[in-house]
Amino acid sequence: MTFADPPRTPLRRALYRAPVWIYRLGLGAVLGGRFLLLTHRGRVTGRARQTVLEVIGRDEDSGGVLAVSGYGGRSQWYRNVRADPRVLVETGRRRYRGTAVLLPPRESGRALAGYAHRRPRTAAGLIRALGHEPDSAGRVYERLGADPENGIPVIALRPDT
Questions:
Q1: 19 touches 31 (CB < 8 A)
Q2: Which Pfam families does the record associate with it (predicted)?
Q3: Helix, strand, or coil (residue 59)
């Protein structure tokens, strides 16, 4: 089974949305700092939307976190934050208003490669599930991270000051 395409059936969509309900029930802390709930605005409706993302690193400059768009430019949340970067982030017990910043391609590629270096098995599983094959040198992570439309771009979620 791969996750190369977004879920199309109601059951699969419900399974993918289950982590959102964990946060809505006030249990997000059980997921720890490894995941986050991102609240953003729909680019067409303007209504609040939510998705759960994996944290792949910390944004040392701002104190925020780094997340990836597994479906690249096809992800609805990614398209929404490109249109309106104002977001609300909840991770572990921390919650903040912030700005979604799309990392430049080269920096995005380095961030994804760094994640793969820190968590090789998890990163390999992620890119396999998305229909890609990892390599031992890690070049595939840099290449996928640097491609904002067809790859796995990295987004910094920086707290507002």
A1: yes
A2: F420H2_quin_red (PF04075)
A3: strand
Amino acid 28: pLDDT: 86
Length of the chain as a residue count = 161
- For residue 4, name the pLDDT band (cuts at 50, 70, 90): low
pTM across the whole model: 0.86
Spell out the domains of the chain, with CATH numbers in brackets. 10-159 (2.30.110.10)
Give the separation between CA 127 and CA 98, rounded to whole angstroms: 28
Q: Which of 77, 97, 83 is nearest to 20 (CA)?
A: 77
Examine the pLDDT at 1 and tell me if it is beyond 70: no
Q: Are 123 and 141 in contact (CB under 8 A)?
A: yes
Q: How far apart are CA 33 and CA 157, in angstroms?
A: 14
CA distance 21 to 8: 19
